[in-house]
User: What shape does this take?
Amino acid sequence: MIRITDIQTLGTEYSVTDQNGNIIRTIQVISHTDILDAAFGFYDEKNHGSYTQYLQDSIAVLFGFEESDPYKIYWYATHEEEIVLADIIEYAIKNDYDKVILEHLEELE
Assistant: This one.
């Protein structure tokens, strides 16, 4: 059975507050693996056929795109093992993003 996933439910929402505890902004942080798990996993030609077909099939099992402004999504890719999420969220808020996608890149040899 294929599950259909609302992308708005992926990841974790973080509320950023001022010194008085008032919510300034809420940021949705999603790991790229959350997106892949909701779709069809990592691309594999043997299992998915063409890359175009893989993308079409993945998009077909996700919805909620119309709720997101693509210009307000910050895609943060790094090969560092440790990240400081507070710094990434601060950058996102200062630059008017409302979603962050975190991607861990494998080291190339």
The CA atoms of residues 16 and 90 lie 9 Å apart. Residues 51-60 form the longest helix (10 residues). Residues 5-104 form one domain. The chain has one domain: 5-104.
